[in-house]
Amino acid sequence: STKIVSLIKESGVMLVARIAGLLLAAIAFEMVINSIKAFFNL
Predict the structure, then answer these.
(1) CA 14 to CA 18: how far, in whole Å?
(2) Spatial separation of the C-alpha atoms in residues 20 and 39, rounded to whole Å
């Protein structure tokens, strides 16, 4: 049963890391779009 618990913990950490990466990418994308809009006065 310890193998199952460690597996769930590991996959949980991977899930959190993936969600955090996705959030970071979304923020970066929004910043790039806002910069382009500001640069071209859109």
Answers:
(1) 6
(2) 29
User: How many domains does the chain contain in total?
Assistant: 1
Domain holding 22, by residue range, is: 1-42
User: What is the overall mean pLDDT for the chain?
Assistant: 90
User: For residue 29, what pLDDT is reported?
Assistant: 98
Residue 5 tokens, joined: 């618990």
3-state secondary structure the chain: CHHHHHHHHHHHHHHHHHHHHHHHHHHHHHHHHHHHHHHCCC
- Across the range 6-24, mean pLDDT stands at 89
